[in-house]
Design brief:
This protein is an alpha+beta fold. Helices cover 43% and strands 10% of the residues. This is Transcriptional regulator.
Length: 258
């Protein structure tokens, strides 16, 4: 007799416990493991290591492509960049870890469930510095808590960024935030802005949440639930849009007494 429950793909903690090697596919990204430790992560919502290295001018696009052409099939692009003198070990490690945690934030975030595990799959970058699964999960939770503490409206992370004119008492915009505001055209979403600026997506989300809290960026309205069909269950509660201006005043008052 068949079980009525569908097969559930293993999660990161389970794979780490069995010291598995392969690729964990999630709805919003992929984590690569070697003997239960995370060796790389990627997500369509986070700029890859190639974007970060070329956008800052550390590597030219041609130099990066040459390394990929030479070593991607062998899974040793990172080692080749160091051995050929294009990057130092420290530069590769720092950029790799930044990319790993950035992509893992989305891959392990709310709404991104495991979809399957491909045993034996390896990433073309090759080994750099493995990270424990518990460390990756703990850092992901910390980042979600940090964003919630800055401005507790996650819809600003997903919707097109719209610049607005704040009141006269709004905090001064930093040069880094000014670059974000320059691209806040009501069309680009935060992860698109990060990719265009060549910055980690999470760092860009921090800037946008701070800008929203200060009134420099509009906070989108929460999506209104679909109206219930007559005669089919209880009426769903519809919550009013939060009074953003009042919330800012309450926040400022609390901070003034800390």
């Amino acid at each position: 007799m068949r079980s009525g429950r569908a097969h559930r793909p293993p999660g990161l903690a389970e794979l780490a416990a069995e010291r598995a090697s392969g690729a964990l596919l999630c709805d919003a990204g992929t984590l690569y493991l070697t003997e239960g430790r995370v060796v790389h992560a990627e997500s369509p919502l986070a700029p890859g290591i190639d974007v970060l290295l070329t956008a800052c001018g550390r590597l030219s696009v041609d130099s990066w492509r040459d390394a990929v052409d030479r070593r991607a099939a062998l899974g040793g692009v990172g080692r080749f960049l160091v051995d050929s003198g294009r990057l130092s070990d420290a530069e590769l490690e720092i950029c790799h870890l930044g990319t790993l945690f950035d992509a893992a934030y989305f891959a392990l975030g709310p709404g991104s469930a495991p979809r399957g595990f491909y045993r034996g799959a390896a990433h073309w970058l090759g080994p750099v510095r493995p990270v424990g699964a518990d460390t990756v999960e703990r850092e992901t939770r910390r980042r979600h808590e940090l964003l919630a503490g800055l401005w507790p409206y996650p819809q600003v992370d997903q919707e097109p960024v719209v610049a607005r004119h704040p009141d006269a008492h709004a905090p001064t915009v930093t040069p880094r935030q000014r670059a974000v505001l320059a691209l806040a055209d009501g069309v680009r979403i935060p992860t698109g802005i990060a990719r265009e600026l060549g910055r980690p997506a999470f760092h860009t989300l921090i800037d946008i949440r701070r800008l929203a809290a200060a009134g420099h960026v509009a906070t989108p309205r929460p999506r209104t639930p679909e109206p219930p069909v007559p005669g089919r269950g209880p009426v769903a509660a519809v919550f009013a849009e939060p009074d953003v201006t009042l919330l800012r005043r309450l926040r400022d008052a609390l901070e003034a007494h800390l």
